[in-house]
Amino acid sequence: MSTSPLPETVTVTIDGTPSQAWAGQSVTAALVTAGIWPLRRNPVDGRLRGPFCGMGVCLECEVTLNGRPGSRSCTAHVTDGMDIRTHTEPLPTVAHG
Ligand code: FES
To answer: How far is the CA of 7 from the centre of ligand 1 (A)?
Structure first.
């Protein structure tokens, strides 16, 4: 009986920090494996959001990939050198006057 070889690892950058991931792994899986959760804030109410459907429908997993905002992390696959940016920073406050 033979064993399957381990998948190749690649290096990605998550919010400026280098991290290892399996080649071909979804970006969502790479982020969760790295302990990154949630991935963004709702732009209306500021609540933290994370992947829900895992199949490209709900848009709750959007991140910026290689400078392209609004990328669905659940349907994208990691590639070596990929730059991944989450969006969990607090929303700016607006002064009402
Ligand atoms: S988790 Fe729903 S679109 Fe990615």
So the answer is: 24
| Residue whose CA lies nearest to ligand 1 atom number 3 | 56
Q: What is the DSSP letter of 15?
A: T
pLDDT in tens, 67-94: 999 999 999 999 999 999 999 998 877 7
Domain that holds residue 61: 9-85
Residue 37 Cβ inside 6 Å of ligand 1? The answer reads: no
Q: What is the pTM of this model?
A: 0.89
Give the model confidence (pLDDT) of 44-72 as tens digits.
Answer: 999 999 999 999 999 999 999 999 999 99
Q: Where are the alpha helices (DSSP H) in the chain?
A: 27-33
Number of domains in the chain: 1
Supply the DSSP symbol for 92. Answer: P
Cα(76)–Cα(6) distance, rounded to whole angstroms? 21
CATH number at residue 31: 3.10.20.440
Measured from the CA of 52, which atom of ligand 1 is nearest?
1
User: Is residue 95 one of the residues assigned to a domain?
Assistant: no
Question: Is position 94 within any domain?
Answer: no
Task: Say yes or no: CB of residue 21 within 6 Å of ligand 1.
Answer: no
